[in-house]
Amino acid sequence: MRSDYFFTSESVSEGHPDKVSDQISDAIVDLFLSKDPEARVACETLTTTQKVVLAGEIRCKGIYENKRWADGALEEIEKTVRQVVKDIGYEQEGFHWETLDFQNLLHGQSVEIAQGVDASGNKDEGAGDQGIMFGFACDETPDLMPATLDYSHKILQRLAADRHAGAAPFLEPDSKSQVTLRYKDGKPVACSAIVVSTQHAPGYDEGAKEAELKAYVKKVVADILPAGLLSGDTVYHINPTGTFEIGGPDGDAGLTGRKIIVDTYGGASPHGGGAFSGKDPTKVDRSAAYVTRYLAKNVVAAGLAKKCTIQVAYAIGVPEPLSFYVDTHETGTVSDEKLEAAIIGIAEQKLGKLTPRGIREGLGLNKPIYRKAAAYGHFGRKAQGDLFPWERTDLVDALKAAMD
Fold first, then answer.
1. What is residue 126's DSSP assignment?
2. Which terminal CB of the chain, N or C, has fewer other CB atoms within 10 Å?
3. Residue 12 forms beta bridges with which residues?
4. HEC profile for 26-95?
5. Is 275 annotated in the active site?
């Protein structure tokens, strides 16, 4: 492990075109799960200038059954889409929640996929696809997330909160951030660079108004990052291209699933390659990534490692995982083999052998809880009621006991 290095992560705001698409897709997942906890959803969203297009495969009691839309279902879907855009704050000529053109190309789920995934007879529910998924946690922040990503998310969350509250009326919804930290002996010791590009009202690209915007962003950064990381050597790039008035889907097309590193660990951990948004929890791209984060976070929260990566793999239609792997990056208090065996044993007791059904029932994933996760990261959030159950640390005592 290197002892002295620089590392960078980025985030994008709720108004970024790809994140608009992610939030719409997850709002559709939530809508379907609110009608039918066993709904099957694979919803992709395209956003561009004054247009939103949905495509994908679905099955849901009360919305789409026997190759037919239920009465009022199409109208409810369109209303849901427009509400997401309105909540984000898009009321611009190039992208407006009320006047945008909406197209729904969703259709029924393939019967060939259904027969592999659905439980039947003595066959348990199988994984919704093949693939590898990773979970990660580290002790760099109280949220047990990589500091570079955690700070990048929080900067943009603050910008959005101020914009919605009217405290920063010059801000528009689209923005990006990037944080570069210097690490020494595995810990962040200094911030070398901050990048923030934010869509803004006319006139905030020159003179006193530009200075006001930049001073505001620097104040937000100072509020978010620990004071000891910032110094006179920290380099700021705030709207480095100059004018940023045209943004969101009007400035660049958005697609579901194009910000998977922003969604996970900012590059500090491997990624299996599958996106989360738009997928119901039978899709292990989503549910297995959540459960591996849950397990890795509990390992670090228990003090059994400073850093933990967990990988799991599945075959489509097969309930049980093909492999399970734990790596504590030479920071563990016990061997990785011992820890791996303990995690598997505890997971079997709590979740049922890490099968898709065990994961989603054990974590309570068959609920309309996903839109909240679709911006500012799926991990490092606060478990609140039904929301973000994969962020709970309720396995800590069991893991410690297993080490005795």
1. P
2. C
3. 176
4. HHHHHHHHHHCCCCEEEEEEEEECCEEEEEEEEEECCCEECCEECCCHHHHHHHHHHHHHHHHCCEECCE
5. no
Catalytic, out of 252, 320, 336, 361: 252
140 is catalytic: no
| Integer Cα distance of 247 and 299 in angstroms | 41
* E strand map for 239-365: 254-255, 307-314, 323-327
10-22 pLDDT tens trace: 999 999 999 999 9
Catalytic status, residue 168:
no
Catalytic residue among 7, 10, 14, 19: 19
| pTM greater than 0.90 | yes
253 is a catalytic site residue: yes
* Residue range 367-385, pLDDT digits in tens: 999 999 999 999 999 999 9
Higher pLDDT, 366 or 129: 366
19 carries an active-site annotation: yes
Burial 11-32 (b: 16+ CB within 10 A, else e): bbbbbbbbbbbbbbbbbbbbbb
Is there a contact between 276 and 289 (Cβ–Cβ < 8 Å)? yes
- Cα(200)–Cα(54) distance, integer angstroms: 28
Q: Which residue matches tokens 């967990």?
A: 310
| Type of residue numbered 4 | D
CA distances from 200 to 94, 299, 354 (A): 14, 42, 46
What three-state secondary structure class fits 331?
A: coil
Active-site residue, 18 included = yes
| CA–CA separation, 299 and 86 (whole Å) | 40
Which residues are bridge partners to 190 per DSSP?
A: 182
* pLDDT of 123: 61
Q: Annotated catalytic, 79? A: no
Residue 252 among the catalytic residues: yes
CB 260 within 8 A of CB 275: yes
75 is catalytic: no
Given the residues 40, 154, 200, 258, the one annotated as active site: 258
Residue owning tokens 């929080």: 154
